[in-house]
Amino acid sequence: MQRYRDKVALVTGGASGIGAAIGARLVAEGAHVVLLDVDADGLGRQQAAETIVADVTDSAQVRDAVERTVERFGRLDNAFNVAGSARFGTVVDGDEEDWAWTVDLVLRGVYLSTRHEARVMQPGASIVNISSLNAHVPLYGASSYAAAKAGVEMFTKNAALELGDRGIRVNAILPGLIRTPLTAGFMDGGPIEKDFLQRIVAARAGEPDEIAGPALFLAGDEASYVNGTSLVVDGGWEITNYPDLRPVVHPAGP
Ligand SMILES: NC(=O)c1ccc[n+]([C@@H]2O[C@H](COP(=O)([O-])OP(=O)(O)OC[C@H]3O[C@@H](n4cnc5c(N)ncnc54)[C@H](O)[C@@H]3O)[C@@H](O)[C@H]2O)c1
């Protein structure tokens, strides 16, 4: 498929994991792609895309990256705001600086990216922000991350409302557990991995490309009437939130 032929796309966090998968799919579908990331080495491993080393928490760097994209390719059609990470720490004992660092990256990073991208976009353009299932489900020891991802979900709706008169759509994806360097610590074959997988109806973690597909759908013309919404892509994890009664409840009853 070449749904993105000659489109110009910017992907933040494009050096790894979900961002890299979105970038690769966009290239495969014919887009001119710019990957933005703080990780220069990771960017160097991505193929067939332009790369810019920049920090999404630095407004001037994001603005310059967007301007360079437009100078290079003439416009910006689609933006994917993927960059994110977390420093863990409980509410009572965690480090206050770590809490602020995470919220700054996850929430303000998406705000700054959306702000500078939207300023140069034309009607028909679109933005996809990567939130998390943790916008809906708390993550023990990472209140900063979960609260900031909930913020990304609401920010996306607000941005869709405000950018409507510019003809720009803004949507969010809420991934569940996806196999990337970010989640490697949860997927070491230990008891935490087993606990996670028991709650996922698909009984496995997702692959980065399984987020890239829905992301390209939401950003593209097939989703022209989809705006300000959130798409949970979690292999059916959110729906198992209720205590797992499968061992005691059968189709005919307990
Ligand atoms: N992997 C999952 O299970 C999962 C689930 C829900 C949400 N997410 C979200 O998806 C996004 C991508 O995560 P991933 O799993 O691919 O992780 P990843 O670590 O593989 O990729 C994240 C990328 O963001 C970049 N980055 C970090 N800080 C940055 C900054 N200040 N400026 C620019 N780039 C920066 C990193 O260098 C890295 O390349 C994140 O927002 C993450 O919170 C991931």
From TrEMBL:
Q: What one GO molecular function would you report for this record?
A: oxidoreductase activity, acting on the CH-OH group of donors, NAD or NADP as acceptor
Q: Which InterPro entries match?
A: NAD(P)-bd_dom_sf (IPR036291), Sc_DH/Rdtase_CS (IPR020904), SDR_fam (IPR002347)
The residue ranges crossing the membrane are none
Q: Which domain of life is it from?
A: Bacteria
Q: What keywords tag this UniProt record?
A: Oxidoreductase
Whether Oxidoreductase counts among this entry's keywords is yes
Q: Which family does it belong to?
A: Belongs to the short-chain dehydrogenases/reductases (SDR) family.
Protein name listed in UniProt: NAD(P)-dependent dehydrogenase (Short-subunit alcohol dehydrogenase family)
Q: Which organism is it from?
A: Actinomycetospora cinnamomea
